[in-house]
Each structure stands twice: as structure tokens, then as C-alpha cells.
Design goal:
It is built from 17 helices and nine strands. It is an alpha/beta fold and about 375 residues long. A hairpin with a 2-residue loop joins strand 6 and strand 7.
């Protein structure tokens, strides 16, 4: 039998299959990418056992757990665990602390299914602490540079062209602005942090010594950038990405109208366009107060007309008017102010190809901070 492990680094670097024996409610609050939740107990069973433990102690709680998970229920769960173990012979079991629940699963797999299957010592809690430490150490010790620029300059496109970039918006499933919600939901905060830490860990293991991020606010939608990294982002150097207003309008039209509409249609079929239109209108309403009443009414009317034409003919050209007005009158003044405040940290400014080339060259010259 393979032994139990506490080599968390190897587990994440190698995408080792893992079976999470925690209850579904625990799993939903936060888990690791690719992990399968095959709980020892349901949420209700866990609640009953927990209450029994508080009132009558561990022995009574274990006895109740054995009563609740018995007979056909027990057989079905063992079968699911055995299927996972056979399909993932290099995998592991874990529970919250690597204690009783994963030990029971391990024991039942051996006695009832004849399968020796190892556990992760320390469980979810220890692996989570390992990833949080990875984030903190990276923020303190690695070399980061940020890509800033006006809305619509293509900062995400720059990241996609670089092997040493970390796409925070991609990990958060959000475009990072008032209009940034996608057709699919964002991950839980813990899932976002775990995925980010694993991305950094793998890049470090591959020899990356400079990490390129987009210059973000603390919140990317509802996902909060880990504090140590966000504090670092207030002092990391920047490059400033530039593009014409026309180019930015075209890019916003593609990302926030054409592509977003397609996402909704894929997710919801015939109802997708209506959901997309509602999302766009709600996004504009979210900045109603900052736009001011008259500006909001004017842009909302233009947007409504553009959506009606898109629904009628499929044409998206009318959307350009509200996009251009929103960039020029709302977003650009904020970014001009930000650039002035960050001017001392800007190492380079230019259009996309020049910025990508600068960042590639810079990566060959940088050593880790000491």
C-alpha cells in the first residue's frame, strides 16, 4: 500500500486526484481544483453527529454516525469510493483535518472493498494553509510587474500572449469592471485563492521568476485579491498599455456585447438573449449614481435601442455609441487620474506588440527579489 502523505507541494504540482470526504456544505465553501466530493456523511447527517458530539461526546457521536451510515446507504457510498479509487490508483482521501472521517473511509474501503487507499495527513486544513503560505511568500519574494491601461486597451490579451502571466480575471471568472459579470457564476472566494496559489506554485516550479498581472482593484467582481498580493500591487512596477479610442470601442463591443451574448445563448438557449440584455442593462444601472441622472437616461436609451436592433437584425453597430460615450466620459477620466498617481512606477508605455516585447525582454533580465 502507498503510504499516507503530507507532501502537499507534490499533490498540487502533479494534479494528483483527491477524494474529499467532507460534507457537501463544507465542499461548497471551498475546495481544490479537480477534487471530487464523495462525503462520508450528508450535511444533515453531519449536523446530527456534531450535535451528538457536543452533548454526549465522541463515542456516542461515532455510534450515531455508524447508525446513520449503514445498510444500503453505506454500501452505496463504499461503492462510490471504490470506483474512485480504482479509477484513480495514484490518488488520496482527505477530510477537514485528516482525522476520523478520512480514517473511516480508508478503513471501510479496506475491510469492505479490499482496497488499500492512502490519506492526506492534515487534510484540507493543512493543504489550505500550505496554499495561503505559497501566496504570501510569492507576494513577498517574487518579482511582479503590472499591466495597466485604459478600459478596452486589451490588457487580458497581453497576458494571454505571455507564458509568465497570471490572469486574475480568468481565475475569478469576471472581467473586473462594472460590466464584468460573465454568463456563468464566479468561484467561491476560497476556490479563487486556491486556484491562484496553485497557478503561482506551478509557475515557480517551472522556473518562472517574473510574474505579470493586470493592475486590478481589490475586488474582481466578488472575488477579493489576497491581501498580501494586493498590498504588493500598490508598489509593483507597471507597464501602461495604449490604444486608440476606436480600437478600444471595437474591443469592448466584442468582449461585452458579441462574446457575452454568445455565452448567455450557450448557457440558456433561446432565453439567452433576454438574459444578456438584462445583464447589460443592470450593469449600466449599477453605475447610475456615478453617471448622474441625465447621462444615465441618455446612455440607457441608446443601449435599449441598440439591444432592440440586435434582437431584430443581429447587428451590433448601434452599441458603439454608448460604449464610446461611457469610455470617454466615465472610465477615461478615472484612468487618467490613476495614471498620474502611478506615474513614478511606470517603466514602459506603448501599444500591445511593444508592451508584450518589453515584458518578454524584461523577464530574461530579472532575478527574484531578496
Amino acid at each position: 500500500m502507498r503510504g499516507d502523505t503530507e507532501n502537499y507541494r507534490a499533490l498540487f504540482l502533479n494534479d494528483v486526484p483527491m477524494m474529499d470526504a467532507r460534507a457537501p456544505v463544507e465542499f461548497a465553501k471551498g475546495a481544490f481544483p479537480g477534487v471530487v466530493n464523495l462525503p462520508l456523511m450528508t450535511d444533515l447527517e453531519r449536523q446530527k453527529v456534531g450535535t451528538c458530539f457536543k452533548q454526549h461526546g465522541q463515542t456516542a457521536a461515532i455510534e450515531l454516525g455508524n447508525q446513520l451510515v449503514s445498510g444500503r446507504t453505506k454500501d452505496e457510498r463504499i461503492q462510490a469510493w471504490a470506483d474512485f479509487a480504482r479509477n484513480n490508483p495514484q490518488g488520496y482521501i482527505y477530510c477537514f483535518r485528516g482525522g476520523l472521517r478520512s480514517q473511516i473511509v480508508q478503513q471501510w474501503l479496506k475491510t469492505e472493498a479490499g482496497i488499500d487507499y492512502p490519506r492526506v495527513t492534515g487534510g484540507y486544513k493543512a493543504m489550505r494553509h500550505f496554499l495561503l503560505d505559497t501566496l504570501d511568500q510569492a507576494a513577498a519574494n517574487e518579482d511582479f510587474i503590472l499591466v495597466g491601461g485604459m478600459t478596452g486597451t486589451g490588457k487580458t490579451e497581453v497576458l494571454a500572449r505571455l507564458d509568465h502571466s497570471v490572469d486574475l480575471e480568468g481565475l475569478a471568472n469576471h472581467r473586473g469592471s462594472s460590466f464584468g459579470k460573465r454568463a456563468t457564476p464566479q468561484p467561491a472566494q476560497i476556490d479563487f485563492e486556491n486556484a491562484l496559489a496553485i497557478r503561482l506554485l506551478k509557475m515557480q516550479a517551472a522556473g518562472t521568476r517574473q510574474f505579470v498581472l493586470e493592475d486590478e482593484a481589490r475586488l474582481v467582481g466578488r472575488c477579493s485579491i489576497p491581501l498580501a498580493l494586493f498590498h504588493g500591487m500598490q508598489r509593483y512596477p507597471l507597464v501602461w498599455l495604449e490604444d486608440s479610442l476606436e480600437g478600444r470601442v471595437t474591443r469592448i463591443l466584442k468582449d461585452y456585447v458579441i462574446d457575452l451574448c454568445a455565452e448567455f445563448v450557450v448557457e440558456q438557449g433561446e432565453e439567452g438573449f433576454a438574459a444578456f440584455a438584462e445583464r447589460l442593462q443592470q450593469s449600466l444601472d449599477n453605475i447610475h449614481k456615478r453617471l448622474g441622472g441625465e447621462n444615465y437616461k441618455r446612455l440607457a436609451a441608446i443601449m435599449d435601442q441598440a439591444l432592440a436592433e440586435q434582437a431584430r437584425s443581429g447587428s451590433v453597430d448601434l452599441h458603439r455609441e454608448w460604449i464610446e460615450a461611457l469610455l470617454r466620459d466615465y472610465y477615461d477620466p478615472m484612468y487618467v487620474y490613476q495614471r498620474q498617481n502611478k506615474a513614478s512606477r511606470i517603466e514602459f508605455a506603448g501599444e500591445q506588440d511593444a508592451v508584450v516585447e518589453f515584458l518578454r525582454q524584461r523577464a530574461t533580465q530579472v532575478n527574484p527579489r531578496t
